[in-house]
């Protein structure tokens, strides 16, 4: 079912439909029934949407880029072993940032030649695991790490295949907490202070490095391709200055997704087109061979695919006239509102087309004043038998979730027509040994 862009339903997974009773369904499954069976909070992922997003990027690359290209999933957006296996089946690459993500990527069947290890403070265990696996690139983040990795590579007798993460010292239009390319960023080797140039020189001189490419990441939730053009031009200028021709190049990820209907289009084609054309132009200008081009989307692949379903609890009115609706989840499963002032919308699962008639605030159940999911929204009247659903919930929610107040992290389902798979089972905090120590 296709919904117009000015409808909140356009933010939902592409297999969303209305059931015979008027309630919401995804991949043909009644969300009302899934909530009753699996409990709430409940996260559901639509397999069709993730595949659509992935293949849209691959198709755009095949049209726009004349060289080899790879779409690598930024696993920090959301990773579980089940989801990792689904993406590995699509022959995606993967961007990992921890030993846990490395192990899941290995178990899921990702090819080492498409794996990149990121992070501003990688441990010895993480670097050793990457060396042992022989991944596409360890993305070196600092001169200190470059020296540390060189010693480790020499000690183990394994040459390290690396990219250098270059910080172009650009400011982009996004929330400060998800901007990573400015001059004060903790990430990467800055161009303006000479660290980036020094890192290229050192990497070229060392017999323990294969300097395969350059990388940068501008931030998240970007809808303008111009900063990508500027960053790529700066990477080529830096490489030329250092007499280095990269065989691989990655401008990272960060292309935005729609969370509310007022957000701009999140069509990825302008992003792929701008990146591809800029690389073409810069190589033609210098007579260089086209590098293998790697994009690392995370949010863009999984955000729209996921929805969060909550049960309605207590309600009250403030002296200012705002109606408060408390839900059975909140900042423990979705900290993005507290961290980034992230914006969401919500519908009633049982009556998604019902008109909002009450100025409301949707809050969580946790003992924090900042536990607010939507500060202001017009909602239909609801009761404890109803469920509310928030779209675009597939990224940076479960992956950043916590057990605050001993909350049990929720069940996550993967939905296909005629099939429901449990990607993550609901925790039982009182059964976990993490808080108890040794028995």
List the helices and strands and how they pair.
Blueprint (H helix, E strand, L loop, with lengths): L15 E3 L5 E3 L2 E2 H8 L3 E5 H18 L4 E6 L6 H9 L3 E4 L2 H10 L6 E3 L6 H10 L3 E4 L2 H14 L3 E8 L21 E2 L4 H11 L3 E7 L10 H16 L6 E5 L16 H18 L5 E4 L3 H4 L3 E12 L5 E5 L8 H5 L6 E2 L9 E6 L8 E8 L7 E4 L20 E6 L2 E6 L15
Parallel strand pairs: 4-20, 5-6, 5-13, 6-7, 7-8, 8-9, 9-10, 9-11, 11-12, 12-13, 15-17
Antiparallel strand pairs: 1-2, 2-3, 4-14, 14-15, 14-19, 16-19, 17-18, 20-21
Helix pairs in contact: 2-9, 3-4, 8-9
Give a brief outline of the structure:
This protein is of the alpha/beta class and 439 residues long. Helix content is 28%, strand content 24%. Helix 2 packs parallel to helix 9, helix 3 crosses helix 4 and helix 8 runs parallel beside helix 9.
Question: What tags apply to this protein structure?
Answer:
single chain, 439 residues, alpha/beta, TIM Barrel, 2 domains, 9-stranded mixed sheet
The main sheet comes to: 9 strands, mixed
Query: What's the CATH class of the largest domain, please?
Result: Alpha Beta
The SS-based structural class is alpha/beta
Which fold name fills CATH's third level, the topology of the largest domain? TIM Barrel
Helix content: 25-40%
